[in-house]
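Ticket #4471: structure export looks truncated?
Reporter: QA, pipeline team
Priority: medium

Steps to reproduce: submit the single chain below to the structure queue and open the exported record.
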Amino acid sequence: MSHRLKRVVQAFEDIADLMQISGTEPHKSYAYRTAARNLARHFDALEGQWDEDRLQRIRGIGPALAEKAVDIAETGSCDYLDRLTDKVPFSVLQLLQIPGLGIKTASAIYQTLGVSSLSELQQAADSGKLQEIEGIGPRRQQQISQSAGALASAGRFMTLDTADSHSEYFGGLLGQVEGALRVHPVGKLRRRSEQISELKLLAVLDRSAEPDEWLSRALEAVKKDESVHSVRGGEGGGCPPYMRFSLRRGMSVYVHAVPVQGEGAALLWLTGNEEHRSKLTRLAKDEKPDALSGWREQLCGMDEAEIYDRFGLQFIPPQLRCGTDEVKAARRGLIPSLLRLDDLRGDLHCHTSWSDGAASIEKMVAAARRRGMDYLAITDHSPSLTVAGGLHEDKLRQQYQHIRRLAEELTDFCLFSGVEVDILPDGSLDYPDDVLEQLDVVIASIHSDLYAGEGKLTKRLLSACEHPQVDIIGHPTGRLLGVRDPEPPDLERLLSACKRTGTAVEINSSPDRLDLPWQWVKKAAKMGVKLVISSDAHSPSGFDLLSYGVDCASRGWCEPENILNTKKASDLMDLLKDSEKEE
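Actual output as written to the record:
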């Protein structure tokens, strides 16, 4: 999804939320929410062009909304959103980050108590005032206080896809400033961290450009974007000179500038975290005193691989520069050949319009084939997840027959039948065994009672892991980054059980999930647990998310051999079904 589209979708969602919370024409909020949803699902119709006529081809978008969408795409805002935020603090939207706190309750809290931020919400909860709101008792008040405190302390952040979108947009904008050769993402984004608290970019300049002068010109360029508030920076900490500006939601963007001859050294220095840089600095002092004593002079003209070689190190990919054991491994030549996106041959988790997806099975298959996949599993939801239109047994059987007929027509592509079955609170599955045993791929996931506590979640996952029909445990922690953070299950026990039973564990590629987390991916790979990277796509464009799953696996030091869906279709089912579970 492009940066402009993300801008418009987010702004329309913000408008809808602000209208409902403030009580300003709340009945009209539905139009903005519908427009946001349809834009996100059917953005291919825009073909990258943001004219009003093309926008009106999308259902739910008339002339007025199309005009606003163009303004937002070009400037980052529109007059109507600005008028709303003049009346209602934009920070009031923070209330919606609290798990289980919906629009109706958030509106009541704001209108009754004047609470418009997480800090104010925590204060109201701690003082007992939240109990004035219908439906909030002592226990719920305590939960809200804990959640508000945790979110406030965590600060604001971007998920990887949002950070990528901002990086692409501002990188393109800055790349047009005279003197720029190219703009690189650095810092957490280049390391592919799952949460980006601040965006860092490196502008590489031609030999005629002076960094300070270029940054002044760049400052004027970004000021033209209405979503930006700029503050000039300077030099410090051994880094190249920079400027800083903030975005509408409070995120900071740092832009460093360096002459082309210092590109390699600046990339290396700005990509690794503090621990990684510290280890390189200690290594330089011990063995090569001049190696880091002047990134502009001694390392002039060297690329990153040459600099690592100067330290006597194997090249360390950006994803691994986290200050753990990567330097020690590089000294011994033990850095693996990391997994790449084109190593994946197929996807075993996607949803269609049979449940909560936006496209038919045929369209999802066509999209997978366009991306060069060899196989795809259709895994719609089971009936307990009513919000997602889960399939009852008779409808699942109809879908199974439909998939089998379609699979017979495909001569160079394998289409597998499957399901994402809910693990119920008692540990049982949402379908009987005789239904599940007909399917090629069974993913078992938890979508309910996620705050029941570590012990109960662990028991449910272990029960599914032991089930003879379950092939994959889906998004095992149940987290949604920045939105939902339940106490994680005992992943050590789960991985041990999966190793013993031959059950695979999913790396869910959704940037909001990235679940299994990369630290546990690394552990699972070392244990020899089967891993699967899944898109969890709900539309054809959802397959693009696979790259984020690959990022997560790479951060966990995974090679192609660690991931099941790097295998040929002819081998995949044997590997997936190779199980020691007792029937």
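Status: closed, not a bug. The export was complete when the record was re-opened. Leaving a note from the reviewer for reference: The longest strand covers residues 414-422.
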